Amino acid sequence: MTRVTLEVAPPTPHTITQDGQQRLVVRFDADALDATDLRASTTTDTLQALRVGDAPQAVTIDLGPRFASFRAADQPGSAGSTRVVIDLVAQTETAPAPGTPPAGTPPPGSPQGAPPSPETPPLLDLPPAGGLRTIVVDAGHGGDDLGAKGAHGTLEKNVTLSVARRLKASIETRLGVRVLLTRDGDQPVASDQRAALANNNKADLFISLHASASVRPSVAGAEVFYLTLAGYGAEAQRAATARADSLPVLGGGSREIEITPWEMAQARHIDQSAAFARALEAALHDRVAMSPRALQQAPLRVLVGANMPAVLVEMGFLTNPQEEQQLAGDERQNVIVQALVDGILRFRASTQATR
Question: Could you tell me the pTM of the whole model?
Fold first, then answer.
């Protein structure tokens, strides 16, 4: 295995994709990169070179002849930076099974002299056409908004940011999907700005991460919420089933325009949000303790303006001493991340099955 480490300052959203079998491309959500000291300290059978990519906002990793697969993760760097760690895994050599033709032997029925098929490396679980392309992960609270606080000083804003960063890295690595964070530092973000980021980037899913508090320390368990239309009246029900308006355009013809008031944006996605919430709740239930009311609807402001399936996940109660200790630790945070990724996969599979 060869490890490539990129120190990125300031932290910048990015995706990692495999371009054929010859290179990996790390694309940053930026206009350009100021790439200093960008070089490979050595070459190996999985790494040939590290360079600025064809596009000014990309870094290209030229792969070696024995490259098989890769895994990547984001880690906190020095002075507020992000460290992008990419492990290049080499092919393993195993003895052929009895009766297996030697390597390079054309398969039966192939033309004599045809070149052998190259060994195909394991692929990421990439989304098919029409599948997920962008997911927004919202780390609740931030800045002066501390959120809930545990008896030992654990702050909700810190837990949500840590889990959000881990979730971003896991989704990008396992699903090959672009992930944007509503915040990647300790800054305040208004509720409507969080949904606006998702809308402006045409996100397919919106996940808001939180941790609960209760006056009773014994209360514990994770919960998943989606928006309720109660209180929005008949207008919300109409918005949930409304169709696009057909407007005339210059030069003749018409064009369908969807005009959705901010307060009604989530209304037309309620059914999908409910299905998404059920998928996440089921995945979490397999791994962590759940509240007796594990799946709920509530009039949550952060979900109102989201124009895509959107949920809010309460990962546990910081006011419960045991859950505070767990939520502050790497093990529980990683378990929650694995559950959320599995929930996303379940939801994606269910939506593809109904098409």
Answer: 0.62
